[in-house]
Design a protein that fits this description.
Length: 234
């Protein structure tokens, strides 16, 4: 099964997901990674990350931010930003990224995180959305003028990924072979170009490397849940 960052996040926010992402499945390989951009509607007249933080601090109760789902990376990225910047904010949950983007484009929300897919890229180039920061370790090649979060808060990133998992109990020989086959099939210029157009990059590795990412994410997001006071949903 192809899964996403929500594979790690859902057990932290939903009571009906009592699985352990690190030990209850066979982890095969990461497939791709996506940096998330902090976006604001142009109608809010927020032109920089610092001006957004200033407004958030001056707004009673904080800001409203787009969340494509309670257990999604966009919601958790904003929770991490709140902790780093010392601001308040309320997630407005939507059923997926498309309606969340519509909420941003319609000016219903103050900000939100999303990957630079074709809709977001078009909205940025037309001026309907403003990119305040990117969540990658380095500045985006597509939008080099957008600063990273880490330039203000070292170590703070906002990213999502896709990976391949299987049922628990697959032999290590078969898991490693599947990872090799995936690398052979996907490591092409065509796949890399398609991912780039969707705001992503190809990241193919070993089962052990994928497990290390999941372990690190689990530790990071568990701290965010604790420090932000996020409670489990029914």
């Amino acid at each position: 099964m192809v899964t996403f960052e929500t594979f790690v996040l859902n057990p932290l926010v939903f009571r009906q997901n009592p699985y352990d992402p690190l030990h209850d499945y066979s982890l095969i390989t990461m497939l791709s990674r996506y940096e998330l951009f902090l976006l604001a509607p142009a109608s809010r007249r927020i032109v920089s990350l610092s001006s957004f933080i200033d407004r958030a601090r001056q707004t009673p109760g904080g800001v409203n931010f787009a969340s494509p789902g309670p257990g999604g990376p966009a919601r958790f990225a904003f929770e991490a930003l709140k902790l780093a910047a010392g601001i308040a904010g309320t997630p407005i949950h939507y059923r997926g990224i498309a309606p969340a983007l519509q909420g941003l484009l319609g000016g219903e929300l103050d900000a939100g995180f999303a990957q630079a897919n074709s809709v977001v890229s078009a909205a940025l180039r037309s001026g309907r959305l403003v990119a305040l920061a990117s969540g990658g370790a380095r500045r985006s090649t597509a939008f080099p003028g957008v600063p990273t979060l880490a330039e203000t808060w070292p170590g703070l990133e906002a990213r999502a990924w896709a990976g391949l998992i299987g049922p628990l109990g697959i032999s290590s020989v078969l898991v490693n072979r599947m990872a090799e086959v995936v690398r052979e099939a996907m490591d092409t210029s065509q796949v890399r170009e398609q991912l780039h157009d969707q705001g992503g990059e190809l990241v193919l590795g070993t089962p052990a490397a994928f497990a290390a990412v999941i372990a690190a994410d689990s530790r990071q997001w568990t701290r965010v849940v604790r420090d932000a006071g996020i409670t489990l949903d029914p």
